[in-house]
What we know:
Blueprint: E1 8-13, H1 19-31, E2 35-40, H2 44-47, H3 50-57, H4 68-73, H5 76-82, E3 85-91, H6 93-100, H7 107-114, E4 119-123, H8 127-131, H9 133-144, E5 148-149, E6 153-156, E7 162-166, H10 170-180, E8 190-195, E9 200-203, E10 206-208, H11 215-226, E11 230-235, E12 246-250, H12 254-265, E13 270-273, E14 280-282, E15 302-304, H13 308-313, E16 320-327, H14 331-341, E17 346-351, E18 363-369, E19 374-381, H15 382-393
Parallel strand pairs: 1-2, 1-3, 3-4, 4-5, 8-11, 8-13, 11-12, 13-16, 16-17
Antiparallel strand pairs: 6-7, 9-10, 14-15, 17-18, 18-19
Helix pairs in contact: 1-3, 1-10, 5-7, 6-9, 11-15
The chain binds cytidine-5'-triphosphate.
Amino acid sequence: MLRLTNRQILLGITGGIAAYKSAELTRMLKKAGADVRVVMTPAAAEFITPLTLQALSGNPVHLQLLDPEAEAGMGHIELARWADLILVAPATADFMARVAAGMGNDLLTTLCLASDAPLCLAPAMNQAMWRDQQTQLNVQALQARGIQLFGPASGEQACGDTGIGRMLEPEALLQAIANQFDYDLLNGKRIVITAGPTREAIDPVRFISNHSSGKMGYALAEAAADAGAEVILISGPVNLHAPAHVKRIMVESAQDMLDAALHTADNCDVFIGAAAVADYRPEFVSTNKLKKGKEESMEIRLIKNADIIATIAALPNKPFTIGFAAETNDVLNYAREKRLRKQLDMIIANDVSIAGIGFNSDENQVTLITSTDEISLPQTSKRQLARQLIEHIAPHLPTTR
Ligand code: CTP
């Protein structure tokens, strides 16, 4: 179940007898490699203990909207943004009615409202409640908003009735969740991504660098690998683990990054330059540590580094080449000009002057610019954004190369 590896699944549990099956679902999700956080309504906690779900998920269980301790750990908005997908299983008739009405009167409904992640519900209720006209109207309203319903199944019910209303079995729910993640989008494609800063040595202990965290490039590498691509990540020095199924090449300087890019870009389908490459490097690198002199000032002469992405874009067999334009003003104009100057197929523009997005933050808001389109994507987590970017990039690629 590769497509669930590292997926961040928020599992909501509402108050129905089927809640006990969600313990097994949690165990299966974890086994499939997903990271699971559980949110329970107070009624759910009457059916199954939070401690069980905490032990199975390996994470604290979230119970209340205004719990100072939980908010200090991971606040509810952070949790909403964290999720790659929200599944509420079991979803009672009451819960579905509240989501259909757009209410946010407890933690779980608030998270459903606050999250951009796909929302899926696994209804579980008595067959008469399921058939009820208002419940059916709610089902239609939820589906019209793109909310997916898994089940319910038909069969014997806990109350003794027989009919439609049973929650799907955990195996079926696991498969339904896995199906939400499109695994084939970049099947057979080779993608090279640069990420992070470069370091330009002054002497053996000093260097010139920048604040790039590498998060956007790493998120893209993860999303591309999840979409089935063979991914090579050329990374400057960062504090991040290599995503699963990604081949990482660690480099230091812009020259190292260029060498690695030229070495790997041959025959790749897509090249994404997410690295914050130093534009200049010291002309001379001292072999010994520079000692403080008597002078009140010192000068380091800098010379220009090669432009990595422009070099790749100029290759005879060039891949679909995508750059980033991190700007502080006149963002779109600079980005358009940069795309043309570097001969890129696409440029991803972002405004790094806005607090909370761009450099070193977990979120980003970008505009994609190609020769024909300009598409603005709303602010979201870098992981979510990476998935959206992959979806926008995939249609540009030829089916065979
Ligand atoms: N880039 C690169 N090699 C460089 C400089 C930049 O590959 N030596 C890539 C970046 O990875 C990014 C894009 O070019 O995808 C734009 O980077 P940016 O620093 O915004 O562009 P510069 O050309 O350096 O322009 P400026 O700093 O003047 O805005």
